[in-house]
């Protein structure tokens, strides 16, 4: 495995609330990614997935405060805030926003919109250079270059999503953060887009973080995944291990709540809802919904433990002598 | 094929929408075009049975459901509900039947009136149908419906507004409002696609409970995994037609139509070890205004032959399969 390209260290995000007080959306997450690797970031809505990657891009609103490091190629992008993030944004780390396919301006051609940031950022010296690059980018994502002159309404949903991916790739980034890139798409189009993302990581050596609530999508696309809960990483490891040998009940329960094409086991919902993040969490944040909670869970915060094969989890069950009880 | 005593029997249903021509089109007398949303669909739903209509956007599954509910006029075909043809019925004649067939929609954030308390939402169908007796009796009916929909204890929910409820709870309120008239058939149009993963299973299990209690359920979904888990039978739609239909297990584990085969291969599986080489169809479903001649799937079909351009295949029992398992493909 190649060396780490991207390392996130103890990332925190707080939002100031209107009525006073703070919401601690991301509570100290750490992970690292090797070049060309695809990692999934999964969890229910509101667990901090999108906030985490927006923080990595330096794109959070002014009501947010961020701490921690996002180290790319040995350099901390967050060191001096906007000053140090800006040069990396889009050039090294790019993002496909959720719903990006619906965010095109209807009165401009798709090509103009892909060219715009290149001219703005000065990565293309002239309009003709930019339009040549636009054709190249469109071909890269499987759209004929001649379609650059078309308007968004002339594209199908899948094609608009491809164009959104092309836009994110405009400045040849090393890392692509994809936020729910297939959520609104039909399953066949979803498969086409996922195959495209996989082939881009192969062909361009792109490193990818795939944010989604859809565990099976991650299982198909990513070798590794981090399961987030209440702004923290509850468990991280190879996707195979997460499915077959979870070390956190949340991971197991999330899989059990997901219908599977070939699964015969009962699909079971997770009771309750994630905790509020505008007050301090005591003990394990998942404890009120957990089916295996025991004595220490309500009061004591679980310690993170590592297992073989780049697998780690924060659950008190792992402290028990017979640590196989989680699954 | 129509089993005697099926709750709902739909045969050769056709629903088309006119494409607006616009002023210039009208003046220029451009030919009127039609969206062939549903093109000859036949199926049944029995009491205590769940049929899932599965397909991608634009395949006609929602139009089928809306036509069955008589929210949309059919062009031809027959809809029999409890043995009675309801296709020609007027609004007035439909009223007593509407009580017995109810629909729930995809988005519980939009289908509930934000100014209505839970009580009002669930009571409304009773008032519309002048049912439920005195105020006290109605409250009893409302409470029962809430309990059946899993909102227990009902006192906790009855006076709340939608904004005070989670997405899953809202969908349960919509289900309670559908149940309060004690229908025989429930049409569920993508009932969980707007909900978080952790609560989807709860809503689906609730529908499963209702099915076990004798309700017939027609579920519209784009999610083959959900259909596989919860439906007794699956009908796969493509461009306004059912291309394959059968017991859920047979359709998912031994699909026979090339479209179903491709769909099954691209559905992401939970277990990374179950990953199969996805058989990705090129392009997207064609526009239902211009339906291909012959087999409507032939332009995207990996095994199409010359005959497929000419022959529009009928839904027939698959060779070597159970009698219930049918497909519309000359190459099965």
Based on the model shown, name its key terms.
heterodimer; A: 327 residues; alpha/beta; eight-stranded mixed sheet; four-stranded antiparallel sheet; 9 helices; 12 strands; B: 332 residues; 21% strand; globular
Plain-language structure description:
The complex is a heterodimer of chains A (327) and B (332). Chain A has 9 helices and 12 strands. Chain A is of the alpha/beta class and 327 residues long. Chain A starts with a strand and ends in a 13-residue tail after the last strand. The model of chain A has no long low-confidence stretch (mean pLDDT 93). Chain B has 332 residues and is α/β, with parallel strands linked by helices. Chain B is 31% helix and 21% strand. Chain B is built from 11 helices and 12 strands. In chain B, helix 4 packs parallel to helix 6, helix 5 packs across helix 6 and helix 6 packs parallel to helix 7. The longest helix of chain B is centred in the middle third of the chain and has 16 residues. The radius of gyration of chain B is 21 Å and the shape is globular. The model of chain B has no long low-confidence stretch (mean pLDDT 92). At the A-B interface, helix 6, helix 7, helix 8 and helix 9 of A face helix 7, helix 8 and helix 10 of B.
Provide a quick synopsis of the model.
Chain A is α/β, with parallel strands linked by helices.
Q: What value does the average pLDDT of chain A take?
A: 93
Shape of chain A: globular
Largest interface: A-B, 42 and 42 residues
Structural category of chain B: alpha/beta
Major sheet attributes of chain B: 8 strands, mixed
Strand tally of chain A is: 12
Average pLDDT metric of chain B: 92
Distance between the termini of chain B: 20 Å
Largest sheet of chain A: 8 strands, mixed
Number of helices of chain A: 9
Counting DSSP H or I runs of 4 or more residues, the number of helices of chain B is 11
């Amino acid at each position: 495995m190649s060396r780490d390209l991207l390392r996130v260290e103890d990332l925190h995000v707080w939002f100031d609330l209107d009525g006073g007080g703070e919401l601690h959306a991301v509570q100290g997450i750490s992970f690292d990614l090797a070049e060309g690797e695809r990692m999934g970031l999964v969890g229910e809505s509101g667990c901090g997935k999108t906030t985490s990657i927006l923080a990595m891009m330096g794109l959070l609103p002014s009501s947010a405060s961020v701490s921690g490091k996002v180290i790319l190629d040995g350099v901390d992008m967050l060191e001096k805030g906007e000053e140090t993030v800006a040069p990396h944004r889009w050039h090294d780390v790019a993002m496909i926003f959720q719903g990006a396919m619906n965010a095109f301006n209807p009165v401009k051609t798709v090509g103009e919109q892909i060219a715009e940031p290149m001219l703005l950022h000065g990565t293309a010296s002239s309009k003709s250079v930019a339009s040549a690059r636009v054709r190249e980018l469109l071909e890269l994502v499987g759209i004929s270059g001649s379609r650059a002159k078309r308007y968004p309404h002339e594209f199908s949903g899948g094609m608009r999503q491809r164009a959104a991916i092309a836009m994110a790739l405009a400045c040849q980034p090393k890392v692509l953060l994809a936020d729910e890139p297939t959520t609104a798409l039909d399953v066949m189009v979803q498969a086409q887009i996922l195959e495209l993302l996989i082939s881009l990581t192969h062909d361009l050596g792109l490193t990818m973080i795939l944010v989604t609530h859809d565990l099976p999508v991650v299982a198909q696309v990513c070798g590794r995944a981090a399961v987030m809960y209440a702004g923290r990483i509850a468990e991280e490891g190879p996707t195979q291990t997460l499915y077959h040998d979870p070390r956190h009940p949340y991971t197991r329960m999330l899989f059990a709540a997901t219908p599977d094409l070939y699964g015969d086991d009962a699909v079971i919902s997770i009771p309750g809802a994630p905790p509020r993040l505008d007050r301090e969490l005591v003990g394990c944040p998942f404890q009120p919904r957990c089916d295996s909670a025991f004595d220490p869970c309500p009061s004591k915060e679980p310690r993170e433990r590592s297992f073989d094969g780049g697998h780690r989890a924060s659950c008190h069950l792992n402290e028990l002598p017979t640590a196989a009880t989680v699954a | 094929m129509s089993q005697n005593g099926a709750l709902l029997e739909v045969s050769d249903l056709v629903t088309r929408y006119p494409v607006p021509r616009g002023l210039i089109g009208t003046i220029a007398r451009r030919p009127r075009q039609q969206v062939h949303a549903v093109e000859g669909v036949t199926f049944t739903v029995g009491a205590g049975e769940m049929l899932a209509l599965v397909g991608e956007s634009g395949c006609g599954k929602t139009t089928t459901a809306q036509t069955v509910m008589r929210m949309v006029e059919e062009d031809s075909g027959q809809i029999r509900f409890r043995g009675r043809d309801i296709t020609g019925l007027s609004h007035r004649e439909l009223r007593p039947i509407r009580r017995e067939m109810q629909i729930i929609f995809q988005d519980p954030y939009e289908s509930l009136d934000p100014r209505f308390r839970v009580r009002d939402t669930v009571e409304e169908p009773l008032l519309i149908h002048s049912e439920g007796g005195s105020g006290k009796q109605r409250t009893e009916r409302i409470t029962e419906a809430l309990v059946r929909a899993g909102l227990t204890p009902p006192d906790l929910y009855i006076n709340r507004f939608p904004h005070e409820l989670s997405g899953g709870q809202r969908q349960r309120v919509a289900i309670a409002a559908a149940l309060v008239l004690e229908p025989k058939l429930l049409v569920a149009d993508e009932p969980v696609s707007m909900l978080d993963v952790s609560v989807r299973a709860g809503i689906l299990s609730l529908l499963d409970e209702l099915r076990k209690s004798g309700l017939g359920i027609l579920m519209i979904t784009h999610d083959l995994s959900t259909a596989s888990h919860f439906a007794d039978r699956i009908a796969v739609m493509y461009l306004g037609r059912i291309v394959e239909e059968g017991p859920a297990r047979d359709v998912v584990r031994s699909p026979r139509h090339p479209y179903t085969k491709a769909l099954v291969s691209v559905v992401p599986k939970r277990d990374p070890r179950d990953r199969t080489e996805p058989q990705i169809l090129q392009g997207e479903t064609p526009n239902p205004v211009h339906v291909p001649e012959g087999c409507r799937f032939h332009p995207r079909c990996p095994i199409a032959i010359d005959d497929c351009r000419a022959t529009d295949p009928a839904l027939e029992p698959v060779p070597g399969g159970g009698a219930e398992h049918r497909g519309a493909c000359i190459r099965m």
